[in-house]
Amino acid sequence: MSAELIDGKKVAARVRDEVARTIARMPVKPGLATILVGENPASAIYVASKRRTCTELGIRDLHRHVPADISQAELASLIIGLGEDPDVTAVLLQLPLPKHLDPQQLIELIPADKDVDGLSILSGGRLAKHVPGLYPCTPLGVMELLDSYYVQLAGTDVVVVGRSNLVGWPLAQMLLQRDATVTSCHKGTRNLVRVCRHADVLIVAAGEQGLVDASFVRPGATVIDVGIHRTAHGITGDVVFDEVVEVADLITPVPGGVGPMTIAMLMRNTLRAAELQGYELANPAPATG
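Now predict its structure.
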């Protein structure tokens, strides 16, 4: 029997609607400053999608587009200025950057309360120490999907394949905070098949197309595929979907699973950033009597 599909588009639409309803009641709207460096086609598409969603939800679009040959000092000055601007509640530096720029040095210039990608060292430290803050969007999206489909996490064996600062590491931290028993592994893990087959929940974020087939999956498991690969035959993930769908109980398709959640959670993070900076989230209720 085929697994139930986890509908990321549906969950993302709900998250966006919740954000939009909250923003509609705010006397001062949050503002997201996306920074696009150069003319990378993929980055331009991603940023355009983020900006379009901002506008749809009532977030002020404070986009900055700078030339590819901008210097480290010039870009640093721009980021510092946005960080100090009270009208800017969230800052996102679109990656990757041209090779002459140091992305981590620039990310560290974004104030933690405006770091909606959650990629600074301080944001990572807040996550590790269970301090409220802004955390990476894709892991937040995975957690939202698991919660939306009522996947038990406390006491559950969860395997995360992948250890990147963008997905694997922060996701393992989030799962631990929900009392899951987490195994963090990667493409170089010995006996990776055996490790994965132990999982009640298997999350694959290794960045390798088709890494996980049915032999990796415990019958009845929940499988989350974070990978995305554009091929001549369409978009695929890290999981061999046609095989695993016959073994798992729940599974995310690619596309339409984790992907739509990333921008939705960015919008929620933008709202969260405004809250961290003391923005009033709703007009006060009218006096009665």
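The chain has two domains: 14-115+262-276, 136-258.
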